[in-house]
């Protein structure tokens, strides 16, 4: 029997279950489970875990990632509305609630649209297919004779005959299985029988649509994580060791007698002050006198850091890219070019310190978190509290931008632990010094670039090694309490892993070796200098070295830096962005520095850098000015050529790119964690300065290359990786001197300008 | 505990709190506002900015006692979706915020700046906004929005 007749048969038999084509999926048209009754941990194999049509016909999509303000919310809603053929306004998203969304890995690796959107797209397409099949039965026409518009299915030839999605299923479950690829996190995907639309069928995707979180932000009504209030909650502030390797020795509780309601909560090195009022907690935490012991840990200090990295034993070395016989090329080289570069420790320094509210009672926990990976908070808290993951619900609430593994995961586990100890809801908000001094840091590293040239100046081999602190000394999520301050303060060993990264490029040198080497952390555990993911992990760090080195090769061999890159990149898309950015910036070829002092007394120069990241490729040209009198480096103009495949929302993309540029400029010009042998001195915005308005560019030009047929590949991070090297190369163009150490502080700039000539192999 | 009375977004309010409590904590806790925000508590970032009689004030370091009898305006009092301040409208038009946690600082400071210097140049704007932080790097959009609002206000 044909699919259609089978459906009709079933309907005629009175069973209100509609069996669709292959017979495996069904809509329970008879009263299905109310949407609210769905299980506490969603099952990815159920269409209902991804989408619901509410009684009024509006669509709720369950997204296991979150939107920190890149416009991901509207991009995902666009995708869902597109596939379902409903109005964008009727789609709302539930994001990052562990009881209502599948674990898609939270915000991660700029995968929001490319990976995060995939199961939603497939689920929405499948939902449309199921709804159409149901409508076909009820309207008694084949599916091919139906049209959908704004959530209303009508018979194409007789538009008056129609059924809305609300009528078809509103408020009831789909009860339809989808095929889950068994992946958790970024790669999680599901497929139904439906094929999603092809690009030429899009009417919503590709348009710049207004974000929907803006009104609440602009008029001050949108609650952030800091605004969550739970009946009866207490406030806590954490107290951390003031010096390297400090342990709690004794606590003088009399020192907070002025606040009789305030209490000290303490176990091993976990130490907090709690109070019924927030200001009370802040004051008491400041006043509390603690004796700390020292275990002899000593750090190298920020000035000794890079020498220490060079001297430290290598715990792990990887050569992810190896081609040709590099060593033989060096052995036979007519000329060897070599240079080293240094990158400091950097802080996430989020705009607002971490905050979380936890309510742990009766063997269950609810945690409100600003972590960009709320499902990891669920898993980490469950382990810390000794509860099953299903007993813990982690709810993401809008938070200050996090840019990787900032302090939001740590504070969530602190709050959970305190709430369990006290048996009441607890809100913890870190102070500024907690956020800047104690967040997991972006790793410091040293890079060594070497190139072997033949007598004609041709590059025979490239050998580039990054050595540094691990990007996963603390994991990039808090799913294991050993990776959090709470776990480590309570005596758990660290869960440190060893990893760094290599440049993303397509240079054609016959022999090539791109390697990384990781050394031991500066302190084994419970350390303010632990390292983890900071926006585009290792991207700005590595390319600061690798793309400066390419420039050095170009200059050493008498080539223009743009022409040299075009001559040697092999990927077609790489060539395209380099050409596009050179055109946009009006690049003037040069094989030696062109910088000249202008009438304003400033040296002016231009520099290029480019990099791949996953499937995205970006090229950046920066124009810098250097004031020889003050050492101030400014970047008045930046041009970016950006290819991230399909552009879902151009305006959102432009702003994401601009944010990348600003963050990259801040990191190369201003940011470094300052510390000595036992104390972290970067504790606030005065001691950890970042870029401010005076240093924002006059103009950022963005060229978006949107190659047909390429899937969206992510934009949250790729641009930032080329920004530091573009600035460094422009600095060279302006001054004729190489500055191989970030950040470009005025003092360092003046010292560099005072050097006689540009010497390789030195800083 | 002393009672402090002031006018908040046009409404008289009175709170009983220790006199040295920073205004920010009073606004957020006792008075239940979902903004302004705590960013540093050190007058270094602007996330807590409100107006005291029309001038920008970092509420994280201002003791509530200093507000006695004064007029405090927050972002919510500056304008509403029905009657937005030109800066708020421009912030929506330019889709400025990323996370938006910094927003009080920029809008409230710019509002005070444009009120006192309606024809502020690019350089004056940049100088007048010194000290404010935006970790998401939305500076380009912020400047576009302020200039858009400025043009509207001068028209
Ligand atoms: S919170 Fe007041 S200036 Fe930062
Ligand atoms: S938008 Fe996030 S700090 Fe400004």
Q: How many strands, what sense, and barrel or not for the largest sheet of chain A? A: 7 strands, mixed
Averaged pLDDT of chain A, please?
91
Please state the CA-atom Rg of chain B, rounded to the nearest Å: 15 Å
The largest sheet of chain B has its strands arranged as: 2-1-5-3-4
Write the layout of secondary structure elements.
The complex is a heterodimer of chains A (763) and B (155).
Chain A: H1 3-12, E1 17-19, E2 26-28, E3 51-53, E4 59-63, H2 72-84, E5 91-95, H3 117-139, E6 146-149, E7 152-155, E8 158-164, H4 165-169, E9 179-180, E10 190-191, H5 214-218, E11 234-238, E12 246-252, E13 263-267, E14 270-275, H6 278-287, E15 289-294, H7 301-311, E16 316-323, H8 326-331, E17 335-343, E18 355-361, E19 364-369, H9 374-385, E20 392-396, H10 408-422, E21 426-429, H11 432-438, E22 445-453, E23 459-468, H12 485-489, E24 511-518, H13 539-556, H14 561-568, H15 572-585, E25 596-597, E26 603-613, E27 616-626, E28 633-643, H16 650-669, E29 699-704, H17 723-735, H18 746-754
Parallel strand pairs in A: 4-5, 11-21, 19-20, 23-24, 28-29
Antiparallel strand pairs in A: 1-2, 3-4, 6-7, 7-8, 9-10, 11-14, 12-15, 13-14, 16-24, 17-22, 18-19, 18-21, 22-23, 25-26, 26-27, 27-28
Helix pairs in contact in A: 2-3, 9-10, 13-17, 16-17
Chain B: E1 3-8, E2 11-16, H1 23-30, E3 49-52, E4 55-58, E5 71-73, H2 75-78, H3 86-93, H4 103-116, H5 122-128, H6 139-154
Parallel strand pairs in B: 1-5
Antiparallel strand pairs in B: 1-2, 3-4, 3-5
Helix pairs in contact in B: 3-6
Residues 97-102, 134-136, 138 of chain B line the site of one FE2/S2 (inorganic) cluster.
């Amino acid at each position: 029997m044909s699919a259609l007749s089978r459906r009709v048969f079933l309907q005629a038999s009175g069973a209100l279950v509609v069996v669709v084509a292959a017979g495996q999926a069904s809509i329970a048209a008879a009263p299905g489970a109310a949407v609210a009754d769905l299980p506490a941990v969603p099952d990815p194999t159920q269409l209902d875990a991804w989408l619901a049509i509410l009684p009024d016909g509006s669509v709720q999509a369950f997204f296991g990632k979150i939107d920190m303000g890149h416009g991901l919310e509207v991009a995902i809603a666009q995708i869902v509305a597109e596939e379902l053929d409903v109005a964008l306004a009727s789609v709302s998203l539930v994001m990052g609630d562990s009881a209502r969304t599948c674990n898609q890995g939270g915000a991660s690796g700029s995968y929001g649209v490319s990976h995060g959107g995939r199961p939603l797209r497939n689920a929405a397409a499948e939902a449309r297919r199921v709804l159409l099949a149901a409508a076909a039965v009820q309207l008694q026409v084949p599916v091919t004779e139906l049209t959908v518009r704004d959530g209303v299915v009508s018979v194409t030839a007789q538009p008056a005959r129609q059924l809305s999605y609300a009528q078809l299923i509103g408020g009831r479950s789909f009860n339809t299985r989808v095929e889950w690829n068994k992946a958790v996190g970024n790669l999680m995907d599901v497929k139904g029988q439906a094929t999603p639309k092809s690009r030429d069928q899009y009417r919503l995707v590709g348009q710049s649509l207004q974000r929907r979180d803006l009104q609440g932000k602009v008029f001050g009504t949108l609650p952030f994580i800091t605004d969550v209030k739970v009946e009866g909650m207490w406030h806590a502030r954490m107290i951390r060791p003031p010096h390297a390797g400090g342990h709690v020795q004794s606590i003088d509780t009399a020192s907070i007698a002025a606040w009789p309601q305030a209490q000290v909560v303490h176990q091993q090195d976990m130490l907090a002050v709690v109070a019924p009022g927030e200001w009370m907690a802040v004051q008491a935490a400041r006043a509390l006198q603690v004796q700390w012991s020292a275990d002899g840990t000593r750090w190298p200090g920020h000035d000794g850091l890079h020498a220490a990295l060079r001297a430290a034993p290598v715990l792990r070395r990887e050569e992810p890219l190896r081609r040709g016989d590099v060593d033989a090329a060096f052995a036979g080289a007519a000329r060897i070019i070599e240079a080293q570069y240094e990158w400091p420790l950097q802080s996430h320094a989020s705009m607002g310190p971490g905050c979380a509210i936890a309510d742990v009672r009766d063997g269950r926990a609810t945690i409100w978190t600003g972590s960009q990976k709320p499902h990891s908070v669920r898993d980490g808290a469950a382990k810390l509290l000794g509860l099953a993951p299903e007993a813990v619900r982690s709810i993401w609430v809008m938070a200050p931008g996090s840019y990787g593994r900032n302090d939001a995961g740590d504070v969530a586990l602190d709050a959970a632990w305190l709430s369990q100890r006290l048996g009441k809801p607890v809100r913890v908000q870190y102070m500024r010094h907690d956020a800047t001094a104690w967040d997991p840091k972006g790793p410091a590293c040293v890079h060594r670039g070497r190139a072997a040239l033949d007598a004609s100046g041709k590059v025979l081999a490239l050998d580039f090694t990054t050595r540094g602190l691990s990007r996963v000394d603390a994991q990039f999520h808090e799913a294991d309490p050993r990776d959090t301050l709470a776990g480590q303060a309570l005596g758990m060993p660290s869960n440190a892993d060893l990893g760094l990264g290599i440049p993303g490029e397509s240079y054609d040198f016959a022999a090539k070796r791109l390697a990384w080497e990781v050394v031991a952390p500066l302190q084994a555990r419970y350390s303010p200098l632990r390292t983890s993911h900071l926006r585009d992990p290792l991207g700005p760090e590595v390319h600061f070295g690798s793309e400066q080195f390419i420039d050095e090769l170009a200059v050493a061999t008498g080539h223009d830096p743009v022409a040299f890159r075009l001559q040697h990149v092999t990927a077609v898309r790489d060539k395209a962005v380099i050409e596009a950015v050179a055109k946009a910036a009006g690049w003037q070829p040069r094989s030696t520095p062109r910088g000249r002092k202008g009438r304003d007394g400033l040296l002016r120069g231009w520099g290029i850098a480019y990099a791949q990241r996953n499937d995205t490729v970006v090229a950046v040209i920066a124009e810098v000015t250097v004031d020889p009198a003050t050492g101030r480096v400014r970047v008045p103009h930046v041009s970016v050529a950006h290819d991230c495949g399909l552009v879902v929302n151009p305006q959102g993309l432009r702003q994401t790119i601009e944010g990348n540029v600003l963050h990259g400029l801040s990191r190369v010009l201003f940011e470094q964690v300052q510390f000595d042998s036992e104390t972290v001195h970067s504790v606030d915005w005065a001691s950890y300065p970042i870029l401010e308005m005076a240093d924002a560019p006059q103009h950022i030009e963005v060229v978006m290359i949107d190659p047909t047929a390429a899937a969206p590949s992510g934009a949250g991070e790729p641009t930032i990786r080329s920004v530091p090297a573009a600035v460094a190369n422009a600095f060279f163009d302006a001054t004729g001197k190489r500055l191989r150490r970030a950040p470009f502080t005025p003092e360092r700039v003046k010292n560099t300008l005072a050097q006689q000539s540009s010497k390789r192999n030195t800083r | 505990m002393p009672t402090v009375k002031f006018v908040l977004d046009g409404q008289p309010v009175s709170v009983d709190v220790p006199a040295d409590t920073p205004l920010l904590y009073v606004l957020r806790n006792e008075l239940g506002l979902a903004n302004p925000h705590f960013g540093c508590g050190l007058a270094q970032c602007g996330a807590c900015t409100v107006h005291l009689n029309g001038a920008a004030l970092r509420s994280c370091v201002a003791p509530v006692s200093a507000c006695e009898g004064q007029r405090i305006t927050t972002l919510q009092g500056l304008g509403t979706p029905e009657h937005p301040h030109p800066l708020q409208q421009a912030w929506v038009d330019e889709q400025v915020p990323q996370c938006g946690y910094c927003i009080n600082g920029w809008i409230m400071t710019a509002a005070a700046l444009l009120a006192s210097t309606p024809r502020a140049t690019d350089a004056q704007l940049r100088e007048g906004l010194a000290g404010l932080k935006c970790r998401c790097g939305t500076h380009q959009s912020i400047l576009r929005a302020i200039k858009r609002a400025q043009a509207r206000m001068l028209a």
